[in-house]
User: Which sequence fits this backbone?
């Protein structure tokens, strides 16, 4: 089963200068591509587990539930060392920006 990327997620990715595609890796939602030194798109990492829901899934079901889940995600991840590093790209940071 492939993950369907929301238009807003594509927009966010474009704003931060990355490219996203549905993942080709088992149990992952999105593959992240960044530009290399030659300005070519290169695979960087995969984010999101297909077996778990995210903000955009919950938003379709119930807006209040989506906000509660988002708040809980940020509360859990705030102590992660890669959660809010400026200038460094990490899975946690991409997950925060694109999935939640």
Assistant:
């Amino acid at each position: 089963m492939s993950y369907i990327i929301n238009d807003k997620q594509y927009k966010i990715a474009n704003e931060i200068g990355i490219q996203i595609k549905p993942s080709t890796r088992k149990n992952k939602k999105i593959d992240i591509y960044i530009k290399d030194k030659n300005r070519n798109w290169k695979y960087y990492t995969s984010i999101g587990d297909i077996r778990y829901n995210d903000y955009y899934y919950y938003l379709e079901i119930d807006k209040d539930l989506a906000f509660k889940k988002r708040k809980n995600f940020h509360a859990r991840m705030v102590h992660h060392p890669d959660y809010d590093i400026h200038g460094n790209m990490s899975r946690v940071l991409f997950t925060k920006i694109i999935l939640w």
Strands lie at 19-22, 28-35, 41-49. The chain has a mean pLDDT of 87. The radius of gyration is 14 Å. The first strand starts at residue 19 and ends at 22.
